[in-house]
Amino acid sequence: MSEAARPLPTAWASLGVACVVLALKTAAWRATGSVALYSDALECIINVAAAALALFALWFAGQPADDNHPYGHHKAEYLSAVVEGTLVFATAAAIAWEAWAGWQHPHPPSRAGLGMAVNAAASAINLVWGLRLLRIGARARSPALAASGRHVLTDVWTSAGVLAGFALVVATGIFRLDAVIAALVAINILYAGYRIVRDSVGGLMDEIVDPALRDRVECAIATHLDGAIEAHDLRCRRAGAMTFVEFHLVVDGGMPVSTAHAICDRLESAVRRTVGLASIYIHVEPDEKAKEGAILPARAA
User: Fold this and answer.
1) 231 & 182 share domain
2) Please, which residues have CB within 8 angstroms of residue 166's CB and are 6 or more apart in sequence?
3) Which GO MF terms does the UniProt record name (predicted)?
4) Tens digit of pLDDT for each residue in 49-91?
């Protein structure tokens, strides 16, 4: 894994970026007194908390397997993303409360130009960093970083809408629009929280992996199946950066154990070259266990 794709240094950087953006958006809100810009700043508090959670989860997920966790700690990243989604829901409720207060007591914003400029600068930082997080999260196969990247980009689109709406408030003098924009922000981040939790729960429940990945694993097995009769009952799942692969390998009933073991070693190497970090379990069976619709050696398929 390249230096750029190492999750822990990226998580530290993400925490630093979140703190900088929070400071900028808080300054924009304090400069204007806008409820909409307040809602944007409040969401950044969740970004800081989420970055800290992701940092801890990545550290914990990287701990080696032990007696209590023989399969490792990889699912800690999914738990981090679930907690992040829950924090998003809490933020939406707080923003909705402030939006209601702003609707009841509308007031004109102050120093609108300064506030918009500072908020736009913070959003530009988030855009660059969010795109980078998505790339690194995909390369490192890290649910925590991927969830953080999606959350940061949601914040960018939210901020763009807030800025456009805030400009409309200033231009029209309809100050209650400020509260309406804040309410729309709350609805938007509720949806983002739902998506984060939905994806993470899917990982915790061992949902089927991307069919394209399973196809690549099947192709790797077929290509390196020489000496065996077939493979069947292929199952794949992911937990963080780890891919778990298991299947049954059918060989001639009289094949020496050492020969079957060599075939298994070859297949394991091929699968790891395809998926990266992997835990692979191969159950060897005699030829009478062959099944219809199995994976055949590539030359015989």
Assistant:
1) no
2) 32, 34, 36, 37, 109, 112, 115, 116, 178, 181
3) cadmium ion transmembrane transporter activity; ferrous iron transmembrane transporter activity; zinc efflux antiporter activity
4) 777 877 777 777 677 777 777 766 666 666 666 777 777 777 7
Which of 130, 145, 139 lies closest to 10 in space, CA to CA? 145
30/80 same-domain check: yes
Provide Rg for the chain, Cα atoms: 25
Edge-to-edge, what's the strand order for the sheet holding 230-239? 230-239, 242-250, 278-285
Please tell me whether residue 235 adopts helix, strand or coil conformation: strand
Residues 6 or more apart from 176 whose CB is under 8 A from it? 102, 103, 106
Q: Are strands 278-285 and 242-250 parallel, antiparallel or unpaired?
A: parallel
Segment 112-150, tens digit of pLDDT: 888 889 989 999 998 999 898 888 877 776 666 776 787
User: How many residues make up the chain in this entry?
Assistant: 301
DSSP string, 41-95: HHHHHHHHHHHHHHHHHHHHHTSPP-SS-TT-STTHHHHHHHHHHHHHHHHHHHH
* Co-location of 82 and 220 in the same domain: no
- The structural domain count of the chain equals 2
Whether 217 maps to a domain, the answer reads yes
Q: State how far the alpha carbon of 136 is from the alpha carbons of 143, 149, 240, 285, 292, in Å.
A: 11, 9, 13, 40, 41
pTM exceeds 0.70, yes or no: no
Identify whether 296 is part of a domain: no
Read off the tokens for 66: 């032990």
CA dihedral 105, 110, 116, 119 (to 10 degrees): -70
Domain span at residue 235 reads 211-289
